[in-house]
Amino acid sequence: MAFCIQFQLISVNEGTAVYAYGDCSENLEGRFELNLGRLMSGEVSMDTDMREVVRVTKPCLSDGGYQHKANRAFSKIYKHYVSTSTYLKEGGYYA
Fold first, then answer.
1. Which of 20, 44, 73, 81 is the most exposed place for a label (fewest CB within 10 A)?
2. For 31-55, what is each residue's pLDDT tens digit?
């Protein structure tokens, strides 16, 4: 089963990034927050539950009560942050 996720950075405030996300066929109606600086510094343990690392404040329509799509977006954002120390402005995940 193939799926497509898009995400876009909305804001960064005191190291916490807010992203809009959703299926490629949706209007990025979902929202999640994350603070990769705290994760990378060790302030937040790498063993922390993903629901605490990626805080979904409004799930996208197709994610329902889960956050699988937000976690997929996180994986792309995390890889970019590790190599550049900056949040990815926009992107997608296609599988």
1. 44
2. 999 999 999 998 988 888 899 999 9
